From TrEMBL:
<keyword id="KW-0813">Transport</keyword>
<comment type="similarity">
    <text>Belongs to the V-ATPase 116 kDa subunit family.</text>
</comment>
<dbReference type="InterPro" id="IPR026028">
    <property type="entry name" value="V-type_ATPase_116kDa_su_euka"/>
</dbReference>
<feature type="transmembrane region" description="Helical">
    <location>
        <begin position="537"/>
        <end position="555"/>
    </location>
</feature>
<dbReference type="GO" id="GO:0007035">
    <property type="term" value="P:vacuolar acidification"/>
</dbReference>
<dbReference type="Pfam" id="PF01496">
    <property type="entry name" value="V_ATPase_I"/>
</dbReference>
<keyword id="KW-0375">Hydrogen ion transport</keyword>
<feature type="coiled-coil region">
    <location>
        <begin position="51"/>
        <end position="128"/>
    </location>
</feature>
<keyword id="KW-0406">Ion transport</keyword>
<keyword id="KW-0175">Coiled coil</keyword>
<dbReference type="GO" id="GO:0000220">
    <property type="term" value="C:vacuolar proton-transporting V-type ATPase, V0 domain"/>
</dbReference>
<feature type="transmembrane region" description="Helical">
    <location>
        <begin position="602"/>
        <end position="621"/>
    </location>
</feature>
<dbReference type="GO" id="GO:0051117">
    <property type="term" value="F:ATPase binding"/>
</dbReference>
<feature type="transmembrane region" description="Helical">
    <location>
        <begin position="570"/>
        <end position="590"/>
    </location>
</feature>
<feature type="region of interest" description="Disordered">
    <location>
        <begin position="683"/>
        <end position="704"/>
    </location>
</feature>
<feature type="transmembrane region" description="Helical">
    <location>
        <begin position="447"/>
        <end position="467"/>
    </location>
</feature>
<feature type="transmembrane region" description="Helical">
    <location>
        <begin position="641"/>
        <end position="660"/>
    </location>
</feature>
Length: 837
């Protein structure tokens, strides 16, 4: 395995494969996932490549499989997923797969068409059944209303003859079914178009009917329209057609209607039987397909990926050999050669593949090996920018620093335990959860960062113990080292009570681990005490973090043999940071060591100078006033002298960073011009290659071969100004550790005092019920606000501290990721093949 702290060494290789063995060899390389192929035909259209027909055939097979998958999901049939990945089929097996998919698709389409036709016929018969029932009711009501001795006989579309004095009326009628939501507009249109000369009766069909086209449930109504004359008949039918109403024949005689109804019921029963058999056959076909669908998808996608990769290759002049160029990790060349031999043996070829390493001046891709634990941390780094080739990789250090800085802001034993338990649950159930592939992006983010969440929770539990904070309360594990002289009522009721270590209440020895729990009682000066502590540790952690980042740049400069950057960037940068800000950290420790509230220390708290004022006076070359009459303004002997020296060193570092490197490059170019050009006539670009400070090709080395000197001076000036001003702003930026820690603790205290304490103050059985409700509300707010929202806020601030304050000291991030040809990655991405250079 390659180095954990740098990307893998890569090699550009040329691969020669016999045409017959190319498919099997590429298949083996896809299973291995360690080779990134380059496109040797960038100017050739995708539709003009050698294996475009095979890719199209794979696309067609994928289309058929997606159709089968849609039908299977529609019926809710579970698809068998064993989690195994079958090998890529041989090219000759494509014909069998195509035939199988073609047969399944045709059979399923035929079954669906037959089922749709049967359902449409069933719908028509069901509507006719309802028409016959409802119209019988209409006709019976009309018959009951006849006052004549002789009942009028209702006829079909020929009409009805009604014997009335003076004239013979001929009435016709049509009956049909219409969607219930269209009925009001349908009725208004009939009234307006026929000028009120029609009579409409309608009745609702209680149960919904299934639409055979899309399977939706539709509510409909039966209607019958009486009219007189052929002109109205034509107009009524056109209106029915416009509203997509379905008309059905309705006999005029009751006996004919009964006979038709009996026939309809018989046909409906027969149709139900046939429909059931059709659905059973369709279900059997889909169940059989569901058992193999996942494996079929994998096989087709592997075939497609292989042919897509073969399209990147070149053919030699004999058309019998395929030539490829690829990036491979140097340590895995032997493994790749073994895979190529296996592919050759599988294909039965007698010509072995040839893998030659090529010399190149191109920047190789960046490949950092990861596992399921380090993958999420590497993703955080790559989100900022992929590391330059062989540049120092911050991910291993981020595994510790990221959750720790997060925990400084999120320090609470209870909230950290919730987060750690959630992360631990995802880790314990990761196999089952990973198998439940979902498109929910939020869940995928949480699951992908399960190890980060777990570590953030564990580190937060640790800092919660240091702060002695669990849901805004303290744990009295070792017993407080304070013995208050006040009585209990004074302690609980006096909001102005302050703890002073100068009194006899303090034993004189600190609490064994973390903060003393007595500070929860001191509501008056608790925040003052904690603010001073958290503010100082924020600056301490921030300065150490930045110094570590500058030291990381030393590893980059030495690895790339960039002597100029080492001398004129790293050394002055480190000196500038140490003599100013690390000295500020030392002052904090000196103050903690030399000043206390009691006389046990060399000096009392009243004589302690302000570190902030001391630092400002140091930069301005001023002497501040002593805090007291008998106090010394300095913390140690010779402080003024050392501070002056430190500021002068820091000021001297600025012109070194600004001018040192550009002047050396200019001198080297001038010297090279004087020595080389009179002899060889070398150009400026050729001579410039001698003055790059010893940087090697590729990776994080800086190159100035073809840059103008003015550009080099401008770039160095920007870099220097950014570093000098950034050192101040970045140090202040780490105060967010204190600010968010304070905000988190105060929010937790507000939730406790304003929500949960209300339930705890109630007594009796009603108090128990009230406490249950209040606790549920408090738990929801705790998880939703303090764990999720505050956790997200602390996560983003931690991410910023790593990207801006830490990585800016050494990390270039100008590389591009290694994207190997891997079946696992392609299948995970749903068959999408990544384009490579």
């Amino acid at each position: 395995m390659g180095s954990l702290f740098r990307s893998e060494e890569m090699a550009l290789c040329q691969l020669f494969l016999q045409s017959e063995a190319a498919y099997a060899c590429v298949s083996e390389l896809g299973e291995l996932g360690l080779v990134q192929f380059r496109d040797l035909n960038p100017d050739v259209n995708a539709f003009q490549r050698k294996f475009v027909n095979e890719v199209r055939r794979c696309d067609e097979m994928e289309r058929k499989l997606r159709y089968l998958e849609k039908e299977i999901k529609k019926d809710g049939i579970p698809m068998l997923d064993t989690g195994e990945s079958p090998e890529a089929p041989q090219p000759r097996e494509m014909i069998d797969l195509e035939a199988t998919f073609e047969k399944l698709e045709n059979e399923l389409r035929e079954v669906n068409q037959n089922a749709e036709a049967l359902k449409r016929n069933f719908l028509e018969l069901t509507e006719l059944k309802h028409i016959l029932r409802k119209t019988q009711v209409f006709f019976d009501e009309m018959a009951d209303n006849q006052n004549e001795d002789e009942q009028a006989q209702l006829l079909g579309e020929e009409g009805v003859r009604a014997n009335q004095p003076g004239q013979n009326l001929k009435l016709g009628f049509v009956a049909g079914v219409i969607s219930r939501e269209k009925l009001p507009a349908f009725e208004r249109m009939l009234w307006r178009a026929c000028r009120g000369n029609v009579f409409l009766r309608q009745a609702m069909i209680e149960s919904p009917l299934e639409d055979p086209t899309n399977g939706d449930q539709v509510y409909k109504s039966v209607f019958i329209i009486f009219f007189q004359g052929d002109q109205l008949k034509t107009r009524v039918k056109k209106i029915c057609e416009g509203f997509r109403a379905t008309l059905y024949p309705c006999p005029e005689a009751p006996a004919d209607r009964r006979e038709m109804a009996m026939g309809v019921m018989t046909r409906i029963e027969d149709l139900n039987t046939v429909l059931g058999q059709t659905q059973d056959h369709r279900h059997r076909v889909l169940v059989a397909a569901a058992k193999n669908l996942k494996n079929w998808f994998v096989k087709v996608r592997k075939i497609k990926a292989i042919y897509h990769t073969l399209n990147l290759f070149n053919l030699d002049v004999t058309q019998k050999c395929l030539i490829a160029e690829c990036w491979v990790p140097l340590l895995d060349i032997e493994t790749i050669q073994l895979a190529l031999r296996r592919g050759t043996e599988r294909s039965g070829s007698s010509v072995p593949p040839i893998l030659n390493r090529m010399q190149t001046f191109e920047n190789p891709p960046t490949y950092n090996r990861t596992n399921k634990f380090t993958k999420a941390f590497q993703a955080l780094i790559d989100a900022y920018g992929v590391a330059s080739y062989r540049e120092m990789n911050p991910a291993p250090y981020t595994i510790i620093t990221f959750p720790f800085l997060f925990a400084v802001m999120f320090g609470d034993l209870g909230h950290g335990a919730i987060m750690a338990l959630f992360g631990l649950w995802m880790i314990r159930k990761e196999k089952g959860l990973a198998a439940q592939k979902t498109d929910n992006e939020i869940w995928n983010i949480f699951f992908g960062g399960r190890y980060i969440i777990f570590l953030m929770g564990v580190f937060s539990m640790y800092t919660g113990l240091i702060y002695n904070d669990i849901f805004s309360k303290s744990l009295n594990i070792f017993g407080s080292h304070w013995h208050l002289s006040y009585n209990k009522s004074t302690v609980w009721n006096n909001n102005y009570l302050q703890l002073s270590p100068a009194t006899s209440d303090y034993e004189g020895t600190p609490y064994p681990f973390g903060m003393d729990p007595i500070w929860q009682v001191a509501s008056s000066n608790k925040i003052v005490f904690q603010n001073a502590y958290k503010m100082k540790i924020s600056i301490i952690f921030g300065v150490l973090h930045m110094i570590f980042g500058v030291i990381m740049s030393w590893h980059n400069h030495t690895y790339f043999r960039n002597r100029l950057s080492l001398l004129y960037e790293f050394i002055p940068q480190l000196l500038f940071l140490v003599v100013l800000f690390f000295y500020l950290v030392l002052l904090m420790f000196i103050k903690w060591n030399r000043y206390a509230a009691t006389n046990a220390f060399p000096m009392t708290e009243a004589c302690a100078p302000s570190i902030l004022i001391t630092f400002i006076d140091m930069v301005l070359f001023k002497n501040s006033k002593a805090p007291g009459k008998d106090c010394n303004i300095y913390m140690f002997a010779g402080q003024s002298f050392f501070q002056t020296i430190f500021v002068l060193i820091a000021l001297a570092c600025i012109p070194v960073m600004l001018l040192g490197k550009p002047i050396k490059i200019m001198q080297a170019r001038k010297l090279a011009n004087e020595e080389v050009q009179p002899i060889t006539g070398a150009s400026d670009a050729e001579v410039g290659g001698m003055s790059n400070g010893g940087g090697s090709h590729g990776g994080g080395g800086e190159h100035h071969d073809e840059e103008e000197m003015s550009e080099i001076f401008i770039h160095q000036g920007i870099h220097t100004i950014e570093y000098v001003l950034g050192s101040v702003s970045h140090t202040a930026s780490y105060l967010r550790l204190w600010a968010l820690s304070l905000a988190h603790a105060q929010l937790a205290e507000v939730l406790w005092s304003m929500v949960l304490s209300l339930g705890l103050n109630k007594e009796g059985w009603l108090g128990g019920i009230f406490l249950t409700v209040v606790f549920a509300f408090w738990a929801v707010l705790t998880v939703g606000i303090l764990v999720l929202m505050e956790g997200l806020s602390a996560f983003l601030h931690t991410l910023r501290l790593h990207w801006v304050e830490f990585q800016s000291k050494f990390y270039m991030g100008h590389g591009y990721a290694f994207q190997p040809f891997s079946f696992d990655t392609i299948i995970e991405n749903g068959g999408a093949v990544t384009e490579t250079e």
